[in-house]
Write a structure and sequence with these properties.
Four Helix Bundle (Hemerythrin (Met), subunit A); single chain; 187 residues; two-stranded antiparallel ribbon; DinB/YfiT-like; DinB superfamily protein; mainly alpha; DinB-like; 4% strand
Amino acid sequence: MDIFRLIQDIKTHLTLSFNEVDEWFDQDKRTLNYQPLNGGWTVQQILEHIYLTNFYLLILIEKGSKKAMRNYRDLDLNAEIKNYSFDKENFEKIGEHGAFEWIRPEHMEPKGELDLKEIRSLISKQYHQCLNYLDLMKNGEGLLCKTTMTVNGLGKINVYEYIYFLSLHARRHIIQMQNNQLEIIKN
């Protein structure tokens, strides 16, 4: 496994996903506040949900990165890298809107307590946090800590995979926002 390639691929995915999320903040009020016919979230609510989900995932990513860096002293990083294979296919469904049933925790549901400017600033900070964790664990250390991810039965995943999950989650909701926009055009 080329761990440096994996880290770069995750950085690239993060950058593309977060840049695309950021573009949604510039949409007109009609697009941002459109309530889809199926009763789903507005774009503004989706953006808030992305922030909230990132917030809670980043708590786990921070704990995981700290533990991974501590584990670096006691575990054989080279052996972990050698024996690691990234099951990208297992993760891809996370980025597909509607690909599986997932009941999100209540604390990740948008409450409308933040304005768009705040949400945009917070998501930008979250993006930079992710990049900082990848830079901190630039030699493969993120493999040295695994935490259980129950979504779609992913099981125990390492810190890099958690960051990739966060990026895929944003991608999932980009598709949802695009669907909202398409519905406006059709109606």
